[in-house]
What does this fold into?
Amino acid sequence: MDIEKIINDCKNNIAESQRKLFYHYYERMAKIVMRYCPDQEDAKEVLNDGFYSVFSNIKTFKGDSQFKTWMTTIFIRESLKKIKINKRIPSKIGESIDENVSNWKAENEDVIDKIEAKELMLLIDNLPELERTVFNLHFLDGYKHKEIAGLCGFSEGTSRWYLNMAKNRIKTNFNNNNYIANKENEITK
It folds into this structure.
């Protein structure tokens, strides 16, 4: 598949190319959206909004980055927008959190390196929403705390705090030997 030709055709609103682009990237974008919006109805809405945004703004894609990266950014922003609409990301978080961040020390940070991918995904899926969002943005999508703060509407210190909370919760749950087995049993039922 010649992705550059499809992108150019999409810029000219050729429906067949839009369909090809949609089907080519749908599964990949759905996985990204589900990391942020595990509720299926929310995820469907974000996917629709994301593809609408892609096709509405595809003319602005200049090729400075990979198309997949450009598109992923759109879907992450749409996911965060949905979370904000549902009022699950507070617009302002108390300064006391920022003050405590400097004292927050994560122990055994290398635990994440020891977790199998399947186990890690189960652990991430069960994090509280804000912790999961910041963890995904930082570890899985490679955003810096400054970027996360801008996307989510809170300070860099708050981003660090949520990340440390997520890492500690993952370590605690990972160290609970029954946690993964219990979650896998729930999934297979």
About this structure: Residues 60 and 115 are 40 Å apart (CA to CA). Confidence is low (pLDDT under 50) at residues 90-109. The chain has eleven helices and no strands. Residues 15-36 form the longest helix (22 residues).
